[in-house]
Amino acid sequence: MNSEEILVLTPPEIQSLLTIDECIVTVEHAFRLYGEGKAAAPAVLSMHTRDGGFHVKLGLLELSRPYFGAKVNGNFAENPNRFGLPTIQGVLILCDAEKGSPLAVMDSRDITLLRTGAATAVAAKYLARQDSRTATICGCGKQGRIQVKALSRVCRLQSVFAYDKIEEQSQHFARELTEDLGIPVTSVTDLAAAVRQSDICVTCTPSREPFLDSDDIAPGTFIAAVGADSPEKQELQPLLMAKSKIVADILQQCSVMGDLHYALDAGVLTLADVYGELGDVVAGNKPGRESDEEIIVFDSTGMALQDVAAAALLYEKAERQGTGIRVSFAA
Asked: Could you tell me if 154 and 252 lie in one domain?
């Protein structure tokens, strides 16, 4: 591609190029580089509006070449009801971090979906029990689907419970995933009972009130807390956090916008009580699961390096295959 051309990738092109299996591999590599101190991810920039807000995530990652990425996402919860639009919309800009040249502009939605599911899969690989066979998914939207598919790549799942406040949605989810994955996915209305039977629990909802308590969790459970990706969202009770081994995707970020920040605000734990970051575990700086009895929470707020890694993978595949639209910015 000409150095003055920028690659533009649309959602259909991204969907044809990026697979969950590739995304898991590249996201794991990004966490490893971060744990080794070879990658940088500054604090998220946020701006709130009356009905939603915008988040800007930046990252610098050395892969086949040095890449810089910036993702700008708008999050407007009432979009589907008010305008028939997705809750989350945005773009990701990828640049050559050696020359400063912009390389690509991509729709961010599918990248965000896949890299978030990939992060859960990486966390489960290191933090879930090796004999984990049953999972509960709280939240049966697009992210819930990706979460199940990603988990199925790293765990030998034999059954999945699906819970959603809208029962019709969980029923449709169960039918679809049962057919897609070839394992029984069952819609449930009693979340606590399902979680008590599960080895893994994933929460991926827009909830602003905690709905999972320590009484619901059996010893040895791995919990991926995915939904609380902004300061006003919460899924886990602070006491559940206090009783768990906490692994953050990025500690500074989780302390202000994940379930962790509610536990800190409640005074039930301090930052010193947090076990560490997933990058520490992936890089081998710290062990992951240390017993079959410990409850481990992966506080997943979404790391910019996941976006950069996925975008770089997309860019390189698109270049090889000649996919996408090339726009000249020449004077």
From this structure: yes
